[in-house]
Specification:
- This protein is α/β, with parallel strands linked by helices and 121 residues long.
- A 5-stranded parallel β-sheet has the order 2-1-3-4-5, sandwiched between helices.
- The protein is built from 5 helices and 5 strands; from the N terminus they run βαβαβαβαβα.
- It is 46% helix and 20% strand.
- The longest helix has 13 residues, at 12-24.
Length: 121
């Protein structure tokens, strides 16, 4: 059975390219474009790992992570961010304190992402 990965990113091109990469690697993948959709999708899709962008309008990755953890989600969550400093990076690091598995910075090497996913699984 294929491992299910949920990609959450407000940039449709980024979400689609990550999902395509993961499908090519043999994962069952879907994506949503915001935190509210992610919360709804988790119960339906039941992902083994979630890739969660931190900088999104409305409910950002930090708030999404907190909501998912509050609902009892046990799946590892890997935070994705392009920000290596400033407020968004601080939010990403705060996600680690809230139970995120790790943070990966855009642009990332596809092999690094696949390796992280396999490790998280």
């Amino acid at each position: 059975m294929k491992k299910r990965i949920l990609v959450v990113d407000d940039d449709p091109d980024m979400a689609d390219s990550i999902a395509s990469l993961l499908k090519d690697e043999g994962f069952e993948t879907t994506y949503v474009l915001n935190g509210n959709e992610a919360i709804k999708k988790v119960s339906e899709f039941q992902p083994e790992v979630i890739l969660l962008d931190i900088a999104m309008p409305g409910m950002d990755g930090y708030d999404t992570l907190k909501s998912l953890k509050k609902e009892g989600l046990k799946s590892p969550i890997i935070i994705i961010t392009a920000y290596r400093d400033g407020t968004m990076n601080e939010r990403a690091l705060a996600c680690l304190k809230e139970g995120a598995y790790t943070v990966i910075y855009k642009p990332f090497d596809p092999e690094e992402l696949i390796s992280l996913l396999k490790e998280a699984l």
